[in-house]
Design brief:
This protein is an alpha+beta fold. The chain has two domains: about 1-55; about 65-215, Glucose Permease (Domain IIA), CATH 2.70.70. It has three helices and 16 strands. It starts with a strand and ends with a strand. The protein has an eight-stranded antiparallel beta sheet with strand order 11-7-8-9-13-5-4-15. Helix 1 packs antiparallel against helix 2. It has helices spanning about 5-30, 35-55, 135; strands spanning about 1-5, 55, 65-70, 75-85, 90-100, 105-110, 115-120, 140-145, 150-160, 165, 175, 180-185, 190-195, 200, 205-210, 215. Belongs to the phosphatidylserine decarboxylase family. PSD-A subfamily. One of its GO terms (molecular function) is phosphatidylserine decarboxylase activity. It is found in: Cell membrane.
Length: about 220
Amino acid sequence: MKIHKEGRRILFVTLLVLLALNLLVFQFNKGADLVNRLFAGATVIVFLLILQFFRSPFRHLFTHEDLLLAPADGKVVVIENVFEPEYFEDERKQISIFMSPINVHVTRNPISGIVKYFKYHPGNYLVAWHPKSSSQNERTTVVVESDAGPLVLFRQIAGAMARRIVWYVNEGDEVSQGEEFGFIKFGSRVDVFVPLDTEVKVELGQKVKGGETVICQLKVQ
């Protein structure tokens, strides 16, 4: 396991701040060994919690033109047919994955293909399970023309804790299944929109791993 590049600066600054706080506490509490030890232990726990947010474990990636892989670690919270207004302007099948603070926050390309559309939307920070989070929160929308033919839309959505979305793709890019397309700092949610005739391979409440779990199968055109 390695530390993701998006967390290195934050972790370095956090480490400096916590070390400085420990030095101040030790300076003003000379002789109070119990207090000093408790404070030091608390700062270690804080640092470890932040550290786990930015872990980037090794994944066994594979590619298949008609299988969609989970774009993120988390739990499947939505499987339903909905109207997608931003790009398709018609009904699509939506699969949503909720990322808790303890999940890996790397987001991955669910399918290989060409990026046909990309847009960043500034917005609010409603909790990820709020019905309007998909349309009102800070988010990015990516549409990929898959090697299998169908267009696939996936969306990074910030939540109450996630205050920054990072992306590594732009229109015209060729993307490979399983590779990183972004990072949501401190987690939130990823939505995937596919054609209605797509066969879903996961169930509500199922835990998935980004780049490994097959979430659905496209009909090859």
